[in-house]
Amino acid sequence: MILDPGLNLTLRPMKYPVFFEMYKAAIKNTWTVEEVDFSHDLTDLRGRLTPAEGHLINRLVAFFATGDSIVSNNLVLNLYQHINSPEARLYLSRQLYEEALHVEFYLTLLDTYIPDQKERNAAFSAIDNIPSIKRKADFCFKWMNSIYGLQRLDTPEQKRQFLLNLICFATCIEGLFFFGAFAYVYFLRSKGLLNGLAGGTNWVFRDESMHISFAYEVIKTVRQESPELFDAKMRSQVVEMMKDAIECEMAFADDVLNLGVAGMSQRDMRQYLQFVADQRLKVLDIPPVYGSKNPFNFMELQDVQELANFFERRVSAYQVGVTGEVAFSESF
């Protein structure tokens, strides 16, 4: 079974072909940072952003500076060694490349948006000196360290530990922290600001959605093979984890929006995060907790914007659509 200790290397016959298909789909979605055009963003940064919007962007890029690096570390240190499927490890190898690409994108973003070296250094060390970002990082490290050093999954409890790590990084970190960040980006894009950032974020969003879909497929496979692992205690732990993640993200929202950004409020952001959390829980067969609706119409129009720019984009923007259970209507 997929969480049995060992290192299965046999790709023929394939036991889990769905993961190989995900790997092939990800290859078709290749993009590069050089394709992102920041030229109009510089004009916006120099004269079109309000002080409150400028603060929002500074906090956002500070979070981006290390967010995907944490995800990459968990993937290498914790996930790869325990998912005993050569097809799935192919996908994880591709995901690691995509995380590196995201790090490069955010590095370029910081170099472009923050020319002052001292300010840039402060952004890179945000997990140490900005409390709202440190809180999110501490949440990530807590769950990354939860199975660090666990060499084998021999017992049901060890397998549950692993699953909680996988669920956390898919639903809370990639699926909530980053989707909260995407909301700020697309809010600004809805006002005609920072289209280069939004264009690059489209590709990151697509990658992250596929990462979440992959994790859900692993969880679905484990549930089919070992349904006894998904007991009431574990479901309760997932709900508590999600509630904790929302409070971490709301601390960030309070920081990001504390100067008063016209058109976006802390109340709306909490409602949006609760909506996203419910979607994540439903895919895990856990009843929704909040019953909130999406307050951000601009998020529902995100795929429309992609179509509007269809003929202006490189081929990598539309080679392959995201498949699986992370459709636009559900993710946001």
Written description of the protein model:
The chain is mainly alpha-helical. It has a single domain, classed as Ribonucleotide Reductase, subunit A, CATH 1.10.620.20. Helix content is 69%, strand content 0%. Helix 8 (156-190) runs antiparallel to helix 9 (195-225). The longest helix is centred in the middle third of the chain and has 35 residues, at 156-190. The chain is globular. The two termini are 33 Å apart. Residues 303-332 have low confidence and may be disordered.
CATH topology: Ribonucleotide Reductase, subunit A
In CATH, the homologous superfamily goes by the name Ribonucleotide Reductase, subunit A
The number of E-state strands comes to 0
- Amount of helix: 55-70%
Largest sheet: none
Shape assignment = globular
Q: Distance between the terminal alpha carbons, to the nearest Å?
A: 33 Å
Q: Mean pLDDT score, rounded?
A: 90
Instruction: Give the SSE string.
Output: HHHHHHHHHHHHHH
Please identify the structural class as seen in this structure.
mainly alpha
CATH architecture: Orthogonal Bundle
Give the count of structural domains. 1
- Which class in CATH terms? Mainly Alpha
Q: Over all CA atoms, what is the radius of gyration?
A: 19 Å
